[in-house]
Give the backbone structure.
Amino acid sequence: MNLIKVNNYEELSQKASEIIIKKIQDNPSFNLGLATGSTPEGMYRKLVEDHQNGGTSYKNVKTFNLDEYVGIPEDDPNSYHYFMNQHLLGHIDIEKSNTHIPNGNQMSDLQRECEEYEKLIDQSGGIDLQVLGLGVNGHVGFNEPGTPFESPTHIVELTQDTREANARFFNSLEEVPTHAVTMGISTIMKSKEIILLVSGAQKAHALSRLLNGEITEECPVTVLGKHPNVTIIADRAALGEE
Ligand code: GLP
């Protein structure tokens, strides 16, 4: 694993955006895996600025998002569809048909939706670079502690910890969905390359388990220790240095 230490969130966002821009400039038909949450927001802002001022084009890029809540309409401000549109997809020249986010509203057959999402990624040639954030409890995407490492895209029941951590975006804890659809650990591990973005002291424990600990399903992010091409961008607070 390659660890890039940065001083703060601004530098993390800058570094992450530089890596992605370079990849897209080198290979305009890139398959990019994307994440939601507060952590990648700054990186998305910089990608949009670069698109508007520097002209990097996403015309032939395909995106695949990690996860989506179950039962929240796409136009609801708390859906990950809405988030992606607000922070990135609505501001770049990507073809809508090239953007993919699991559909958490396929209520009649969510299991089938999961299988089709997995197939879609494979048939598109796989993900070239997957961006990941990190949950306080070590989750990646919505793969909660205890998720088998072999899991493909699946439906997950969110832990109380995760619902509480994400309640800040909702009016109340009760409004936070109980379930989500997420790429599985095996889906994420099939990506050719991964960048993990970690910012803030509340992530320090989970990050230290990845950097120093054993690889265990009890802390999903530790699986990255088995991947051949991972870059971690972490700020001082996440590294426990401030
Ligand atoms: C959510 C997302 C994850 C994300 C995590 C951390 O639960 N499903 O993909 O990495 O939150 O979010 P944040 O970056 O806001 O701390």
Q: What stands out?
A: The pocket of GLP is lined by residues 35-39, 66-67, 133-135, 141-142, 162, 166 (CB under 6 Å). The domain at 2-235 is CATH 3.40.50.1360 (Rossmann fold). Helices lie at 9-26, 41-54, 80-87, 110-123, 160-166, 185-189, 204-212. The mean pLDDT is 96.
